[in-house]
Amino acid sequence: MITADELMEGESGLFALPFQQKYGPLIEKLFSQITMADDTQLNARKQSELQENIVRYTDFRTYLKFDLETTDQNGSKQLLSQTLNMKSGGETQTPFYIAVLASFAQLYRVNDATRFGNTVRLVVFDEAFNKMDSDRITESVLLLRKMGLQAIICTPPDKVSDIMPIADRTLLVDKSGYRMHIIPFGKEMQNEGSTGDPESSAG
Question: What is the pLDDT of residue 188?
Answer without folding.
Answer: 46
